[in-house]
Amino acid sequence: MAVQINPSILSADFARLADEAKAVEGADWLHVDVMDNHFVPNLTLGVPVVESLARATDTPLDCHLMIEAPDRWAPQYVEAGASSVTFHVEAAAAPVRLAREIRAKGARASMALKPATPIEPYEDLLPELDMLLIMTVEPGFGGQAFLDIMLPKIRRTRELISKHGLELWLQVDGGVSASTIERCADAGADVFVAGSAVYGANDPAAAVRALRTQAESATAQASWACDH
Questions:
Q1: Which family does the entry's similarity section mention (predicted)?
Q2: Could you confirm whether 227 is annotated as catalytic?
């Protein structure tokens, strides 16, 4: 499976989002963190900004909804131009129905798990998804330190994906950097959200390329990838 690098605009300059999107040309997706100050203790942006950003860039938008009532709001982000929409299972009332609705509207459906949420109870839901997001920090703020204790959870998730023969992307978000991305790839992740590691660099596009090279090298040597 191809490595994908998704710069997070949470670490970008919100007054210059169109320029910041152009600064990471070559990235696979733009990761857009939507926070409502209820599900997480932070407030970021919503549908109008996603609509504007979708018009300003050709890079597809990967919207991560850290909000309450995603069953109500997630479809609006597809309509706003998001090509992938991630909801948190902890907040969703009916995750299967929501994933199917997101797909029916033409976007990729993704489900996120906070660090304390185990993957095993949701094994039967995996075929309904296009991507699963394992949070490697507590959601809510950028710039946090990577939680190494999530690596076994990433491995177990990759094993479940392989067990069922699914073409399911496995994304990690939180503290992903040059010092952690190889461990994530080795554990089974193939989609990497990076905020500070990209937008904190002097050359964000070069940072994307460097992270991709690291992840591809680690993936080539990973036991899970060799089994495919």
A1: Belongs to the ribulose-phosphate 3-epimerase family.
A2: no
173 is in an annotated binding site: yes
Quote the pLDDT of residue 105: 98
User: Active site residue: 33, 36, 62, 130, which one?
Assistant: 33
Backbone angles phi, psi at 35, to 5 degrees: -125, 140
Please indicate, yes or no, whether the overall pTM of this predicted structure exceeds 0.90. Answer: yes
| CA 95 – CA 106 distance, rounded (Å) | 17
Reply yes or no on whether the pLDDT at 1 is more than 70: no
Bridge partners of residue 131, in order along the sequence:
110, 169
What confidence tier does 226 reach under pLDDT thresholds 50, 70, 90? confident
Per residue in 35-67, pLDDT tens? Answer: 999 999 999 999 999 999 999 999 999 999 999
> In a 10 Å sphere around its CB, with 0-12 CB exposed, 13-18 middle and 19+ buried, how is residue 115 labelled?
middle
26 assigned binding-site residue: no
- Does the annotation mark 124 as catalytic? no
80 within 8 A of 51, measured Cβ to Cβ: yes
164 is in an annotated binding site: no
195 is in an annotated binding site: yes
pLDDT in tens, 182-213: 999 999 999 999 999 999 999 999 999 999 99
**Which residue type is seen at 206?**
A
